[in-house]
Amino acid sequence: MKKFISFLLILVLAFFLMTSLNSSLDFFNPPNSLDETRMSNAFIHKNASGGSDPVEFGKSTGLEDGSANIVTSVVVDYRSFDTLGEITVLFISALGVGLLLGAGTGAKQRSGFILKTAAKLISPLMMVTGIFIFTHGHLTPGGGFPGGSMMATAFLLNYFGSGSISTDLKSLKWMESLAGVFYIVIGLIGLFVAGSFLQNYLPTGTVGHLFSAGIIPIIYVLVGLKVGSEVSGIIADFSKSEVTS
Amino acid sequence: MWSPVWLIVLPLLMAFISVVIKKQQYLLLNLSILLNLAVLYLAPQGMVIIGGFRPPFGISLNFDRYAFISLLLIQVLMLFATFIAGPLAKKYGTVLLVLLAGINGMLLTNDLFNLFVMIEVVSIASFIISTSNGKFTHTFHYLILASVGGVFFLLGAVMVYAYTGTLVVQGLFATLGQLPNAISLIPMMLIILGLAVELKLMPVGSWAKNIYGNSNVLTGPIFAAVLAPAFGFVFGRMMGEVVVLNPITGYTLLFMAIATFVLGELAAYRQKDLLKTLAFSSIAQSGLAIILFTLNLPFAAILLLINNALAKSILFWVATGVSTAYETSSMKGLRGVFYNHRILGITFSIASLSLVGIPLFLGFYAKVTAVMAIFTTGLIWIPVVILATAIIEGAYMMKWLLQLWSPAKEGHLASTEEVPEKREALNMTQIVAVCLVALILFVFGLVPQRVGRVLSVASQAEISQVETVAEGGGQ
Prior knowledge:
The structure holds 2 protein chains of 2 kinds.
Chain A: H1 2-24, H2 39-45, H3 70-78, H4 80-101, H5 113-135, H6 144-162, H7 169-193, H8 216-240
Helix pairs in contact in A: 3-4, 4-8, 5-6, 5-8, 6-8, 7-8
Chain B: H1 6-18, H2 25-42, E1 46-50, E2 59-63, H3 65-85, H4 87-91, H5 93-108, H6 112-130, H7 136-164, H8 172-177, H9 181-199, H10 207-213, H11 219-241, H12 247-270, H13 274-294, H14 298-325, H15 342-356, H16 362-377, H17 381-405, H18 428-446, H19 448-462, H20 469-474
Antiparallel strand pairs in B: 1-2
C-alpha cells in the first residue's frame, strides 16, 4: 500500500513536470535562429565584455576568450569556478572511496593470453589519445574530464591485462594533489595580476591555434591529469577491496 | 588582495595539499579556519567577480552582512568542532577541509548553478563524515535521499535558467515574479524540494533521525551545529532572493514546515534515547526556522538559527561524550550521569534551557521575537501552534535534565551508590572548549538586544523580497 501511494505520487509529479516542461521548453521544435537577448549569445560571439566583431576561425585574435570550442569557453573560462567545484566533487568522491575501501591488500586477477597481449598493445594508445584529448580541449570536442577518464580506462585495462597494479600509487596521489594546487595557484595569480580569481592573464592568441586561449589549455591539462589520477586511484582502491565470487 | 574568495580557495588548497602530507591534515585544517577568520575581518564587503566576467556572464560572490554573520558562525563552530573531536577530526581532516570550502562557497555564491555545485561538494563530504558513525545503511539512506534532492535542485535551476536566461541569485525573484504562476510553480517546487532533504523537512528528512541518532563526537556537532545552520542560511538566501511563492507553493511549504516542527517535537518527547531525542529536536527546530523564513521573517529566523547552532553543538558534545564513555545513550543507562560530570552538566543545562527558550537565555529572546513577528503576518494560529509545541519541548528537556542530574526517586535525595561508576567522558581541554561555547551562549543571553542589533543589519542586507506567503495566500 505504501509503495502504491508512493508510485501514485511520483506519477502525479512526473505528469506535472512533463506538462510544465513541454509547454515552456519545446524540445522537439528548437528555434530556427539564436535569440539575441539570451546570455548564451554572448558566449558564442565572445562579447560578454563588449564588442561585436564576428569571430572567425583561424583569424580572430586577442578575443576576450580564445577557445575555438564554445563548450570549453563556458566551462573553463566564463564559468571556470564551477569546474573547480566539479573537480572537488570528484576529489572528495575518490577520497571517500579510499577511506571506505582502500584498506585491503588486493587480490591478484587472472587474465587470459588474448586480454594480456591486447592490453599491452591498446593501453599505451589509449593513454596517448587521452593526453591528446585534454591538450586539445580548447580546439576540439573533449577536454580534461573525458581525456582524464580515458587515461584512467587505460590504467584499468592495464590492470586487467597484467593482473596487478604496477603503478606507484603514491605518484598518483602526488599528481592529483599537484594538479589541484596548480589549478588554484593559476587562479590566484589571476587574482593578483588581473584583479579577479581565475581571470585570464595570458594572451589569448588566434582562435583555432594550439597555442592560444591563454590559461584555458593549461587548466585543461591540469584537469585531465587530476581526473586521470583520481579515477585511477578509485580503480586501485576498488582492486584492494575484498573480491567475492 | 583580501578577497572573500580566499574563504573558499584556502581550505580547498589545503585539502589538495593534505592528500600528500596526511600527517599534517589536522594542522592544515585548523590553520585554514584561523586564516579564514582573519580573511572574514579583512575582506571588504560587497560583490566579488570571479573569472573577470561581470554577472550574469560570469560567477560572482555576494559578501554582505548576511553572508558575514553566517560565515563567522560556521568558522567558529567548525573550529570548536574539530578541536573537540580531536583524533576523529584528524582522520577526516581532508574531508573537513573540503566541507568547509563547500559550506563557505554555498554561503557566498551569487550564482544558482554554482550553488548546486557547492551543495554537491558539501553533501558528498557529509556522506563521508557520516560513515564515521559506522552505520553504513544509514549513510546509504542519506546518500540516496540527498542525491535525489540534488537532482531536483539542479532541475529547478535549469528551468529557472531556461525561463529567465540568468542564474544570478541576487534579485532573481523580480524576474521570476513576472512569469505566469503556472510556469514558475514547478521550478520553485523543485528548488524547495531539493533543499528540503538537507533541511530535514518531513517527508524527505527521514535520514536525519538515524544519522543524528547514532552520532559520535564529530558527526553530531558537525551535522547539528555546522551543516544545519549552513543550509538554514542558504534557504534564507533562496527565500529572500530567488523563490517566488504563490498560494500553492507557499502553503505546501508552510504545512510541511509546521508538520516537521510539531511531529518532530512529539517524536522527541517519546524517545527514551538521548541522541535520538536530540535528533528529533533538531528536525523540529529546523522546521521552525523554515516557517520563519517562509513567512519572510529573516531576523527571527537568523536569531533562532544561531541560538540552535550554539545550543545544539554543546548538547551533542556532551551527549556523545557521555554516551561513548558509558556505552549507552538510553535514559536508564545515563541516569544521574551529571552527578559525576558537574561541569558538563552545567553546560548541558545552559544549552538545553536556551534551546527551550527560558527567560535570561538567548533562546527566549529568539522565540519571543519569532512569535511576535508571526503575529504581525496575521496568521494567528501559527504562534498558537508554536507555543503549544514549545511546552512539549520544555517538558522533554526538563525530563532529561532531571534524569541526567539525579538518579534518585522523586522527593528523595540522591546517594553515590545510585550513580554509575565515573568514567572519563571528555578530557580537560575538551571540557574547557565546551565551556567556552557555553559561555558565548550565556553572554549572548545576557545582552540579547545587542546581539539583535548586529543581526538586524544582516537580515536587512539580505532580504530584498517583500512578498510574503500571507499576502500571497490572501489574494
